[in-house]
Each structure stands twice: as C-alpha cells, then as structure tokens.
Amino acid sequence: MTPFTTLTAIAAPLLRDNIDTDAIIPSREITTTAKTGLADGLFAGWRYTRIGGREPVAGFVLNDPVFRGARILLTGANFGCGSSREHAAWALAEYGFRVIVAVSFNPIFRGNAVRNGLVPIELPASAIAAIAHETEGDPATRLVSVDLPAERLTISGATGYDFRLEPEAKAMLIAGLDAIDLTWRHREAIANFRAADHVRRPWVYRGQSERH
Amino acid sequence: MGRTLFAKIWDQHRIMDLGDGTELVLIDRILLHERTGGVALQSLEVAGRRVNDPSQVFATMDHVVDTRPGRTDATLMPTGSAFIAATRRAARAAGIRLFDLEDPGQGIVHVISPEQAIMLPGLTLVCPDSHTCSQGALGGLAWGIGSTEAEHALATSSLRVRKPATMRITVSGRLPEGSTAKDLALHVLARIGAAGAGGAVIEYTGEAVRALDVEARLTLCNMATEAGAFSALIAPDDTVFAYLAGRAFAPKGELWAAAVRAWRSLASDPDARFDTELSFDAAEVAPMVSWGTSPQHSVPLGHEVPSLAQAPHDTADSHRRALDYMGLHGGAALEGLPIDAAFIGSCTNSRLSDLRRAAAVLAGRHVAAGVRAICVPGSSRVKAEAEAEGIDRVFIAAGFEWRESGCSMCFFAGGESFAAGQRVISSTNRNFESRQGAGVRTHLASPETVAASAILGRIAAPRRLAPPP
Questions:
Q1: What is the pLDDT of residues A111-143, one digit of tens each?
Q2: Among A7, A68, B23, B152, fewest CB within 10 Å belongs to which?
Q3: Nearest-CB residue to B147 (from A86, A197, A211)
Q4: How far apart are the C-alpha atoms of B154 and A25, rounded to whole Å?
Q5: Of B118, B69, B4, which is closest to residue B387 (Cα–Cα)?
Q6: Alpha-carbon distance B284 to nearest alpha carbon in chain A (angstroms)
Q7: Residue B261, C-beta contacts closer than 8 angstroms, at least 6 positions apart
C-alpha cells in the first residue's frame, strides 16, 4: 500500500448524498477477477452517454477538463453505501483519487478505503460546500492540501479545516502498512486463544486440527 | 452495569486490545461467493499465504451464475464464467467446502448459511457481502467486509475491528394482518434514513420481533445495511433453537445440548445501556413500497410520493434527482402506478415462507398482460422444497418464470436486466439508480405486494385483488 503523508491536489466536487457502490463502479464494469482495470468504469453510469460506451457526458464533473488530474473527491453524506464490493475503492484509487472528503461514510466502504490507501475524511456538509465553493472558479490553482499527520485540510494555504481519523487507520495510511503483516505478529496469541476457546465452545469447531 | 447481547459476543471473541480503540476479534466462520470471494482467495495465494483453518470457511456460487433453467457454467454476463472458474479452483486448492452449481446446498450465501446451520447463535461470521448482517437473525454477530478484510480473516482467523456503537430498536405490539418483516424493515428505514444507524450494531427486540419466525427475522436484519449499520442481531430464543436443530452443520448430541445451554445466556441484561434507543409501534406498520432511489424513500402503499417537505432525509437536490430518475413527482399516487415487471427473489425475500405467501396470492390468478414476472428461489433447497409442495406450479400457472437459485436480477451481475425506463416491483433490497439494469425504476416491496401488483399490472396491495374466479 502506498504510504500517505501529505498531498496538494485538485479537488473535484460530486456533492450528492448516498452515492452507492453500484454508482461508483457498476457491476457490469467489473469484468475480471483482478483488482485492476477498473478506473475506466469509475462512475460509468454518470460519466458516459451509454451503457458500456466511453463517450463522455459533458456535464459530469470528471469529464470537465478543469478537474483533470483531481486526486481529492468532495462529496455528501453516506458515501459508499450499498454493496461491499471493494472494487469501488480499487476504482477510485486506480483513477488517481487519494482522498475522499465526505459528510459521512458507509462503514464497509470506509474500511475498504483505508485498506487501499484512500484517506476517508469526514467534515460537516457546510465545510465541504464551502471548499467546493472556494475552489470551483479555478480548481487548478486553488488547490486543496491534506496533511494527514496534522489532520488538517487547507485550501491553497488559506482556509483550513481540522479533521479526525482514528489512530489505527491513520497510522496504517501513513506507513502504508499491510494489516495481515501486523496481525501475523500475534499469530501465537490467536492460536492460544482458539485453543482455549475450543474448550469453552467446542460446538464452534468442526474437528480439524490447528495448523500452526 | 449489565452488558448488551452484542457486548457479550464481542467479549467472548476479543483476542487482544491493539490500542487506540481497535481490537483483534476472533472470527468463527468465513463465507465466500464467486464475485468477491474468488478474488480474496486468489490474492491470498499470490501473497504466499494460506487459509488458517479451511474447516471454518464455506463458499457458494450465487452472484453471477445464470438462473435460467438448464444452466451451465456459462453466464449471460461476459466473463462471468471466469469468476466461477477462479472460485472453484481456489476453493479446491484451499480445501474449502464449496457449494457448486450442481450441489443441492447451492444458493444465495445468506440463505444457505442459516438453512444449513453454518451460522449459529453467538458466532462471529464475516463475508465479503454487505447483506451478511442478515445472519444476525440467528443471534450471532455477522457483518459484511471487503475482499482485503476477507483475506485477513482467511489468513489469521481474526479481524482488526473498532468496536461499533450500539443501537436498540424495540418494536412493541404485533404487526397488523398483511404487514410483514419487509414492511417493518422499510418502515424503520423511512424513519431513520439510509445513514440512520451511523455504523452502529442494531439489536432488534420487542414483542413484534420475538413473534417473527426465523425467516422473517432474516428479512428484517437483512436491510440493516441499508441504514448504514455495522450489523443487526436478535437475541436467540427457542424459535431459533427449534429452527437450527438437526440442520446439516448444527452441533449434534451432547454438543447440541451444551450449545443450547450456553446460547440461553445470549441476551442483553435488563440494565444494559445502549448508545441509542429507538422505539416503534408495530401497529403502525402498513404494507410499504419505495418511491425513489434509496431504501429510505419508502412510504405506506396508499400514500402519495412525498414532497420535499415530507422527505426528512433528503436535500432539494437528492429529492429532485430521485423523482427525475423514477419519472414521478411529489403528490403522485403510488398505488395504481403501472408496472412492466415483477421480481421475487434475493437474500431479502426468497425463502420458502416468502414463496408460500406469494403463491397464496397468485393461486388461481394470472399475471396481467404485458408484465414480465420472475421468481428466483433463494437456494436449491428452497427450490426443491417449493416444488415438493407444488408452489412452482402455482407460480408457473400464474405466468411467472420459475428459476434456478442465485442473486439474479436483484442486480444485474448475472448479465440479465430489465430494460431502461421499465418500472419493476421487486422483493429485493436496493432501489438504487440502475441497480436492476441501466435506467430501470425499482420499487421495493414485500413478496405478497409484488405478487398482487404482478396480477393487477400496477402497484397494489393484496387486499385490492378480487377473489379468484
């Protein structure tokens, strides 16, 4: 996972509530068992004029040349609701997004984002609207900066907003850590816990011996 | 102070505190399906890791499989068979029990797990699928995760989790005749909104919840994810124990007796405190139907499409977008709206009791001209049991297509969809834009409302039907 400390980039506004993972990446765009090749399908239903096509819808934010290269997405409440498909996080990351600023996130999507180096930042709707408003005239020069260690977002060195991310997610994003590697250090503790649990709740275990 | 049901299960599975509010939690069961599970197994292999305990892992084929009669590995979705092949190969290599296409145990993951007692009270169960919360109906903690988290659970039998907040939803009284668990789920969603649970784990309780059978409880818990819940659960009781007894993977003999003794302690203590408490009166739950593009957009069947002022969880923009997409306006009547198609299926409403209730509406009647009607049983076992009762013949005689089990047109990963602009009444869980096909307008409802609407060719409650000839 690519570590994240600070980023200064164009912020693209998609200020809708309840953007679901079917909208982020429609099922029909998930055609391989790999985690890649998904960026073109990002927001396909809104981004292209027809199903399976690639002709851009003129009014859609990601098709607007001034937002080309955007790496920060500004959005509404309950972002990433619906299907747990991690393809939504993979598609956003592959497209180039590193930060999603939302009023709130669906819990499964939020976990998927952190596991893929996407920083989920929660700010009030009024703050997100203000950021979109302040940057919209000239997003390429009115860039947004995100300082994850300091938990602060600022617009081209001007208006600033503090945000909070829980310590484990913050640490993993900054170091680009793999969760399995971290947990692997505790494998003996897990095996011991399971052995004791096997005695407490024998009906849970299906008779196969531990393989540690 | 007393503990909640959730806290009791959590404490039993807490391996260690990882600091800063994150805990390492033991995972008892991992379920996989070919859409997201194959990716997880494949990625685990590439990383050179192996499944820690294959006996706790089960896989099925449900998401992209064809559901037309006489199906093979071929799918209408281009490349769908690659997902089937990859999952089959990876499951075999890892030694995981797979319910493949021809297996009598095949079906939608959240239907087959309860029906085979893979899920049990007090267990932690995860699956890379958002509707995993359904299985909390059996009194355990079951939640949806992504593929990367599934890899973590497979490799370590554990997950790093931040303990969620708790929300108790008490439903007093009894559901009126004609109102179902699906209507209750939509009623709750309409009140609290699509983000209303805020990542909390919901405990459903109260007289109306205790009165539900297990299949109805599964329907209720199924839609907790539509409110942004971490999961939902219901304290296990004799109804659950009687349901599980003797099923394929249920403990047997001495172990069963010991398990039931332990399961009886799985209830919130009388003085347990919840972060949020909500109360509902079951008597107020009417047959519901959705009008917009989020499950929170639901109203009683006889009501009109709400105006912006009557839609508490919407902004002016989201309200307008939903109405534009659905081809409706505030104040429009929902009952009587002509439909193009009717769909009965999905992890929400495809179990035997759902099909029985729909069949009772369909018996002696026929689907309206021009309406395409489809029934997809939730599992191969549900299908076989329904056929043994003659339910398939009722559906077919009424003009329904009778399918093989799978997720099918709940979404269109199977490669099939309804046509753009078509209005579909559906027993599923999501009325998102283009969920059932590009431009398709989905109205969520109970199976009996779907059946009645199919007969009349317009959205209608079963009580609107004339007696069969």
A1: 999 999 999 999 999 999 999 999 988 999 999
A2: A68
A3: A86
A4: 26
A5: B69
A6: 27
A7: none
- With 80 as the cut, is the pLDDT of residue B468 above it? no
Residue located via tokens 């693209």: A12
Predicted-complex ipTM score = 0.95
Q: CB within 8 A of A155, min separation 6: which ones?
A: A131, A134, A135, A142, A143, A144, A145
How sure is the predictor about A209, in pLDDT bands with cuts at 50, 70 and 90? very low
The residue-averaged pLDDT of B244-263 equals 97
How far away is chain B from the Cα of A157, in angstroms, using its nearest Cα?
A: 31
Q: Are the beta carbons of A107 and B199 closer than 8 angstroms?
A: yes
Closest CA–CA distance from residue B268 to any residue of chain A (Å): 20
Which of A34-38, B54-58, B109-113 is least confident?
A: A34-38
For the cut 60, the answer to whether the pLDDT of residue A208 exceeds it is: no
Q: Which two tokens stand for residue B373?
A: 């009607």
B41-51 confidence digits (pLDDT tens): 999 999 999 99
Which pairing describes strands A6-9 and A144-147: parallel, antiparallel, or unpaired? antiparallel
- Determine, for residues B148 and A179 on separate chains, whether the beta-carbon distance falls below 8 Å: yes
Would you call A152 helix, strand, or coil by DSSP? strand
Domains defined along chain A, listed by start: 6-177 (3.20.19.10), 178-212 (no CATH)
Q: Provide the 10 A C-beta neighbour count for residue A152.
A: 14
Mean pLDDT, rounded, for B70-89:
93
Instruction: List beta partners, residue A26.
Output: none
Domains and CATH numbers, chain B: 23-161+241-257 (3.30.499.10), 166-236+267-284 (3.40.1060.10), 288-464 (3.30.499.10)
- Please, are residues B6 and B33 in contact by the beta-carbon 8 Å criterion? no
Residue A168 is nearest to which of B38, B160, B256, comparing CB atoms?
B160
**pLDDT band per the 50, 70, 90 thresholds, residue B413:** low
Q: Looking at the complex, does the CB of residue A68 fall below 8 Å from at least one CB of chain B?
A: no
Q: Is the pLDDT of residue A212 over 50?
A: no
Inter-axis angle of helices A167-175 and A107-115, nearest 10: 30
**How many other C-beta atoms are found inside a 10 Å radius of the C-beta of residue A112?**
30
- Encode chain B in three state secondary structure: CCCCHHHHHHHHHEEEECCCCEEEEECCEEEEECCCHHHHHHHHHHCCCCCCCHHHEEEECCCCCCCCCCCCCCCCCCCHHHHHHHHHHHHHHHCCEEECCCCCCCECHHHHHHHCCCCCCCCEEEECCHHHHHHHHHCCEEEECCHHHHHHHHHHCEEEEECCCEEEEEEECCCCCCCCHHHHHHHHHHHHCCCCCCCCEEEEECHHHHCCCHHHHHHHHHHHHHHCCCEEECCCCHHHHHHHCCCCCCCCHHHHHHHHHHHCCCCCCCCCCCCEEEEEEHHHCCCEEECCCCCCCEEECCCECCCHHHCCCCCHHHHHHHHHHHCCCCCCECCCCECCEEEECCCCCCCHHHHHHHHHHHCCCCCCCCCEEEECCCEHHHHHHHHHHCHHHHHHHCCEEECCCCCHHHCCCCCCCCCCCCEEEECCCCCCCCCCCCCCEEEECCHHHHHHHHHHCECCCHHHCCCCC
Residues above pLDDT 70, as percent of chain A: 97
Bridge partners, A12 (sequence order): A73
**Run of H or E residues at A136:** helix A125-136
What is the C-alpha to C-alpha distance for residues B384 and B406, in angstroms, rounded to an integer? 14
Distance CA B428, CA B454 (A): 15
